[in-house]
Design a protein that fits this description.
single chain, alpha+beta, 2 domains, four-stranded mixed sheet, four-stranded antiparallel sheet, globular
């Protein structure tokens, strides 16, 4: 049996909870409106190759710098020229497929020269925002307690994308992850 005191407590609790529920509903509505109004599309991609180069050749691509670079390759000639500089050793190229550049492009992400082993780079996602491909990537950096090989490395990640994005500009959003060993 409910007493008037317990009913008052329940009613007061409901009255206090009602503004919170209304605010929560308004907040969700605004979030949904923002998501709907953005012209963003997730782009599917396939990894062509990912790893660490041991000896890229100097050339137009300037892969010996320590800056992260992304190249959009839209023809077989660009792909071959890129590989000639990035992977001069033909045995490194053996497992690579030849994209169909009538329907695909390749995005080649390079972390540039790094002073030791333990570095890496990975494309996490690609989205299309208007006429721009936004590439989200993470660079892995070794922590201070890691035991590393003293060798110059050039981390890379190559992906191919199917669809009509050859005319898009490319922007890179980079985050850094410090790997504790």
């Amino acid at each position: 049996m409910l007493t008037s005191t317990s009913m008052t407590i329940r009613l007061n609790g409901l009255i206090l909870l009602l503004p919170v529920l209304l605010l929560e509903a308004c907040g969700n509505s605004r979030i949904n409106e923002t998501r709907v109004s953005m012209d963003t599309q997730t782009i599917e991609y396939t990894t062509v190759a990912r790893g660490t180069l041991s000896n890229p050749v100097k050339g137009e691509l300037n892969l010996d710098t320590d800056t992260i670079q992304i190249h959009k390759l839209t023809s077989p000639e660009q792909w071959d020229a890129y590989l000639d500089q990035a992977m001069p050793d033909l045995h490194e190229r053996q497992p690579l497929s030849s994209p169909d550049f009538d329907n695909e492009i390749v995005l080649a992400l390079s972390a540039g020269q790094r002073p030791s082993s333990g570095y890496g780079i990975r494309i996490n996602s690609i989205s299309s925002e208007g006429g721009t491909l936004v590439v989200s990537a993470t660079e892995t950096v070794p922590g201070e307690n890691c035991m590393l090989l003293t060798v110059l490395t050039w981390p890379y990640h190559y992906v191919q994308i199917t669809g009509g994005v050859a005319g898009h500009k490319v922007e890179l959003e980079r985050t850094e992850f410090i790997q504790d060993c």
